[in-house]
Structure formats: structure tokens, C-alpha cells
Amino acid sequence: MGDLEFNIYFCGMDEETFSEQIMIYKPNSRITRCFTEAALLQLEIIYVSELIDHLKKDITIKESLGACGLENFSIETVYIQYHGYLLRIQKDKPISTIFQDFETNQLEFAHFVVGGASIHNETSYRFTIHPDEKIHEHMPHVHVSKAGTEIRYSLETLLPIDPLVNPHKRDNKKIITPFLQRNHDKLLEMWSYYTKGYTTPDIAQDGKQFYSES
To answer: Strand pairing partners for 145?
Structure first.
């Protein structure tokens, strides 16, 4: 075995990478915890699941992830960082076995807190929750986009906040509103998680990102 580094990355909005189902953006902050082989032995951590359980008790991590984030923090969402690749851990296993498999004495694990989410439907509409909505934090809403046109819809009334134009005007009653009705609970949950559970950094005059001291 050897030394182990575990990084929890908090990802912001960046249109460079996203899949059809959910957007995952470039990290702009992280929490890092380092463990020596001796520390893991002293903590009686043998399996990856035991390491995750230990990290879930970390006060800073608990406060940063929140209840929903902690629930999502599991074997299925942890990766091994290796030579620029992210390798999913298929099943729980002893950490010593992973060291042996990669023939290394330095392991890096990663877990990503997603900074925004997007749901698609069969009509090519995208329904997106943005994390950087502090100016609208008391106005739950979803961004509905198609063909370069984006309209905000209230998640309280399910009515459009912005003036309707095509294709939204044409599809509002038959497609958009029914979709919002069917997915209302899920979208509200996404809104609550991404707006309250993620905080964007401030931007200094030189363009660097930073978090103000509390």
C-alpha cells in the first residue's frame, strides 16, 4: 500500500462537457483529504466503502454536501484518478487490492458534486436547472430550451416567466406543460439541491475565483 488522496470536486457551469441526461461541468473548487497507510490502519479502514463512511462523518464534507449530496456519495459515484483518466469503481473492494492492481504507492480517488442538471425529452426540449441562481433563489424555475430559444418557467405555477415565442408558443400546452407536470417533484428537488447546496465563488479583479471567509 501507500498514500491515498481523496478529492471531492464542486463543479460549475461550463458548456464544454455534458451528456444527454445530465450536465457535469468543470470543477472550480474541491475538498481534499489525505491518508497515509498508517492512518488507514489506525482508523481500521480496509474497504473503499469504509473510507466513504469515514468521509461522510467529516464536518466540512457533511456541511458542503448536505443531506441529498451525502445520499449520492457512494461506491457508484467514486472514481479512481489514474494518468488523466477517471476509472469507475465497479464494486466495493479492499483499498490494498487497488494499490496492487495499479502497482502504485499513490492513489487518488474522486467524487463529483454536479453543479447543474438537465433533463431531455423525446421532443428535443432541454429542461435545465442552473446552480448560479442566487438572485432568483426565492423564485424556483427551470430553463426550457430548444432550437436556440430559451424560456424560463416557474416551478410554483408551471407558467412561463418570459414571453412565449416559437417553438415554445406552439408547444406550450401540448408538450412543455405536461412534461413539467409529470416531472414537477423531480425538478423542484433538483432546484433545491443545486441552488442551496452549491455556492459559486466570487471573482476577483484579476479574474481569479475565491471564496470569502465566513
So the answer is: 126, 150
pLDDT tens profile 64-116: 777 767 877 888 888 888 877 778 887 899 999 999 988 888 999 988 876 55
* pTM tops 0.70: no
Distances (CA, A) of 31 to 59, 60, 109: 12, 9, 12
3-class secondary structure for the chain? CCEEEEEEEEECCCCCCECCCCECCCEEEEEEEEECHHHHHHCCCCEHHHHHHHHHCCHHHHHHHHHHHHHHCCHHHEEEEECCEEEECCCCCEHHHHHHHHCCCEEEEEEEECCCEEEECCCCCEEEECCCCHHHCCCCEEEEEECCEEEEEECCCCCECCCCCCCHHHHHHHHHHHHHHHCHHHHHHHHHHHHHCCCCCEECCCCCEECCCC
CA distance 25 to 4: 25
